Amino acid sequence: LAGFTSTSSAVVEGQPFAALYGGVWERNEDGSLATDEFGFPFNAAAQDVIGDPNPDWRGGLGTEFSIGGFSASVLFETAQGQDMWNGTRGVLHFFGIHPETANISVSDRDLTTYIGDVIPAGTPFRGNIIDFGAGPVAADAEWYLDNGGGFGAVDEQFVEDASWTRLREATISYSFPSKMLENVGLSSLQLGITGRNLVLWSPFEGADPDTNLTGASKGRGLHYFTNPGTRSILFNLKFGF
Known about the structure:
Oligomer: single chain
Strand content: 35-45%
Largest sheet: 5 strands, antiparallel
Helix content: under 10%
Structural class: mainly beta
Shape: elongated
């Protein structure tokens, strides 16, 4: 439906509409990661479904109230249970810009790198110590330049929970008493301020899980340097004669 050759939003028999489809890890019969001779996981021969971009449920909660001349309203919205492919995070790993790739690690044992080199015990290196199931290994630049974040890396590792809740809109206004307006020729006067997309709560690491790389299309659940929703503040003045 949309996306890239490596990761896409697709129609797959028996799966939800617009399912995320991409590269997956090769796995053993018990479901654990299969690893190569150096202890690193590797691509399966065929792609598969890696996530469901459709929320389990959506909802909203709003209220309005007035106290004296003041009135206010707030609107919260939420979408829960959907997945999103965070291609942005993968590219940041590839270029060594993601904070995770900047860690300086030291092990008390010899570690093997993705290309088979050995980092002696006690030697600092830039990267991370990871156990994929066959013992600790050194995930250094070679790993992040290939399967750990490179172009064509296994896509399932960048699928995240994209549930979100946001304060969609909040408004507060004040209506001046009519007695104050008698000498200025007005029957009513109201000042107000409205904020939209003020706060976002989400476990998703990208900018905004309520956006989509391919916009208003049949494809969904794709994040690749996607711009976040705009936050705006509006002032308004209403008056009557």
